[in-house]
Amino acid sequence: MSNQPAESRNDTRTRLLEAALEAFGSRDYDGVSTREIVEMAGANISAISYHFENKQGLYHATVSYLSETLKAGMAEQLESLEAWMKQATAEDCAEKVCQFLEHYFEHILLGEVGKHSPGIIFREQNRPTEAFQILFENLLAPMHKALAQLVARYRGQSATEPQVLYMVHTLLGQTIIFRIAQTTLLKILEQKQYNQADINAIKEQLRCQCRAILDTQTIPIHSE
Questions:
Q1: Nearest Cα to Cα of residue 73 among 49, 119, 106
Q2: 175 vs 143: CA distance, rounded Å
Q3: In-domain check, residue 219
Q4: Could you report the per-residue pLDDT of 182-217, keeping only the tens digit for each?
Q5: Is it the case that residue 3 has pLDDT exceeding 60?
Q6: Cys-Cys with 57: which of 17, 52, 176, 216 at CB 3.0–4.6 Å?
Q7: Do residues 109 and 176 make contact, with C-beta atoms less than 8 angstroms apart?
Q8: For 33-44, what is each residue's pLDDT tens digit?
């Protein structure tokens, strides 16, 4: 048993997770070494085995840390949603979707954790590992479900209808693109980063697109 105080052990674990998030967020799994991570965290190599058993355990814990942190950042928008919807009008639900996307863009995707999240999230989307299930259960599924409930309520449809699910995916995609492809946009704008005017304009653009998508005519879906 370690004779380190619990607070110190937890602090080391957090530093390792934050260092791993930065490392795995910028390079593929195989391109990251545990020695590099412990050096970034100011820890000993033995800390990996103590807290996570091995590199794979550290990666899974990092994905869990990422998804839980991102979800916590959206707690205000997602908590008690079902109870809120009982009193909400259809228009309230549409406004809630727009507010969620604006918040997701500015406070989550542009936040400190969001800086490193695209590398992990989109790698797991394109080449899923066992860690994808952690990401899906902790973050992606709850977020998708919540938005589907809001969209369905506004449109008078079921939250499980394919068109509603397609809409949610589209709404999230149009928001995420401003983070994952920001290098392209910033180069076109001849800037190194978004300024507050850009952020405000993008939020307004997202709101306009959100309302347009929500009001899309119902599209018949034919099974082959």
A1: 106
A2: 13
A3: no
A4: 999 999 999 999 999 999 999 999 999 999 999 988
A5: no
A6: 52
A7: yes
A8: 999 999 999 999
Q: Is residue 178 part of a domain?
A: yes
Q: Give the span between the Cα atoms of 23 and 67, in whole angstroms.
A: 16
Q: Which CATH number do you get for residue 71? A: 1.10.357.10
Radius of gyration of the chain (CA): 20
Per the domain annotation, does 224 fall within a domain?
no
Place of tokens 């008690």: 80
Whether residues 188 and 109 fall in one domain: yes
Whole-model pTM?
Answer: 0.85
How many CB atoms are located within 10 Å of the residue 116 CB?
19
CA 91 to chain centre: 26
Give the CA-trace dihedral at 207, 210, 211, 214, to 10 degrees. Answer: -160
User: Which token pair is 207?
Assistant: 């709101």
Q: 80-129 pLDDT, tens per residue?
A: 788 888 899 999 999 999 999 999 998 888 887 778 888 898 899 999 99
Residue 190, Cα to own-chain centre: how many angstroms? 27
Query: What pLDDT, on the 0 to 100 scale, is given for residue 76?
Result: 74
Q: What residues contact residue 110 under an 8 Å CB cut-off, 6+ apart?
A: 179, 194, 199
DSSP assignments along 16-51, one per residue: HHHHHHHHHHHS-GGG--HHHHHHHHT--THHHHHH
Residues whose CB falls within 8 Å of the CB of residue 89, separated by 6 or more in sequence, listed in order: none
Contact 12, 5 (CB under 8 A): no
